[in-house]
Write a structure and sequence with these properties.
79 residues; mainly alpha; 2 helices
C-alpha cells in the first residue's frame, strides 16, 4: 500500500511549509499569525469591494455630509 501524503500549505507570511492538520494553519507559527494581524491593524491590508446596496450608499453619503458640513462640535466653552 502507498502511504498517504500529508497535505501541506504555504504560510502567507513567510512561505514556510505548513501541514494542513497543524494547529497554526494557515500560518506556520504564532509569530507569523501576529505579523499578519499587525498588517491588518495598521491598514497594510484592505478589503476593497464596491458597495452595491443603494440604501447603504445613501446612509454613507448622509454620514459624510454630516462630517463635512457640521464641523467639530464644541462643548460650549467658547470665550
Amino acid at each position: 500500500m502507498a502511504k498517504a501524503k500529508a497535505k501541506t500549505l504555504r504560510c502567507p507570511t513567510c512561505s514556510a511549509l505548513v501541514l494542513a492538520d497543524s494547529e497554526e494553519v494557515p500560518f506556520c507559527s504564532d509569530r507569523c499569525r501576529r505579523i499578519d494581524l499587525g498588517k491588518w491593524a495598521s491598514g497594510a491590508y484592505v478589503v476593497s469591494s464596491p458597495v452595491h446596496d443603494p440604501d447603504l450608499l445613501d446612509e454613507l453619503e448622509g454620514l459624510r455630509g454630516r462630517q463635512t458640513s457640521g464641523g467639530a462640535k464644541n462643548s460650549g466653552d467658547e470665550e
